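Curious: why this fold?
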Amino acid sequence: MLLEPQYKKVSALLLRWFDKNARDLPWRRTRDPYAIWVAEIMLQQTQSDTVKPYYHRFLARFPTVRHLARARLDAILKVWEGLGYYTRARNLHQAAQKIVREFAARLPQTKQELLSLPGGGLYTAGAIASIAFGRDEPLVDGNVTRVLCRLFRIRRDPRSGKVRRNLWSLAEALLPAGRAGSFNQAMMELGATVCLPRSPHCQECPLRKICSAKEHGEQEKLPIRAKKKSLPRLKVAVAVIYKNGRILIDKRKPDGLLGGLWEFPGGKVRKGESLEAALSREIREELGITVRILHPLATVQHSYSHFSVTLHAFKCAYAAGTPTCRTCVDYKWVHPKQLKKYAFPAANKKIMAALNT
């Protein structure tokens, strides 16, 4: 078991390793708190290689917090399109407006102020306070959790409240005064590149000689993994509705999954209901119109974090009625070539691809 007198050795070994092995990532080349904040939000639940192109495009379009605060949400979601977890983008927008309104357009520096921002959590507050402002604040994410569970041989579920609190206490105890930002990044870097979930590269680890899990041959077993539950699968009928050469799209309500994105109208198929019956019903309930179903267009499989969906898309012709947003917030008739101007969920993008085949 790693003892408290060894904590300084952990930080010294890790910082020395990080100074030599840190990846050259774009958000590490700036001291701009705004740019670091954007990166940290994007990196939540998303790998760095995926984030890189989005990070560059986002900052090119919204280079300051003022640009982001006054932007239209539609424009922000379009730049974010494909990165997923769209609540992050909506929270960024709301947080930017609060920063302009309450903090004179300067990102707050303290943990408590950062926690007051929409979408702000302990991880984000710790990351921004330490990395952007040099404050001695810890952080714990998935990578840090894995490193700590192995380093200290924690053989309990890290998702439990007691273990989570213990992990935060350990992360804080290990912080080297004045170098919290570098240390936090080093912990995350170690988890991302060496202390991997499976087949960790223990021989490359700077902490291998003091890692309790490695000492007991348990590095592959820790942290304790919960049994994966099978994802519920939804069946959804979707309509690509044509009228005079244009296609009807509508916008989802701003809250909840995929909030604020545009989509082809449709909805869940009820038990015992045919796809065609479900589609006609959903279009009436969603927009108050009737359509004539022409033929199947595409079948799309897509998985989200907590469920998977099969979209059955049909080409339809507008029949009667005046569109009214009953379960959406807006609708438009757009030319097929204009669809790319709007932010759509990934599953709907796959349907768009079928329109061009």
Remarks:
- The CA atoms of residues 123 and 214 lie 27 Å apart.
- The chain has a mean pLDDT of 93.
- The first strand starts at residue 233 and ends at 243.
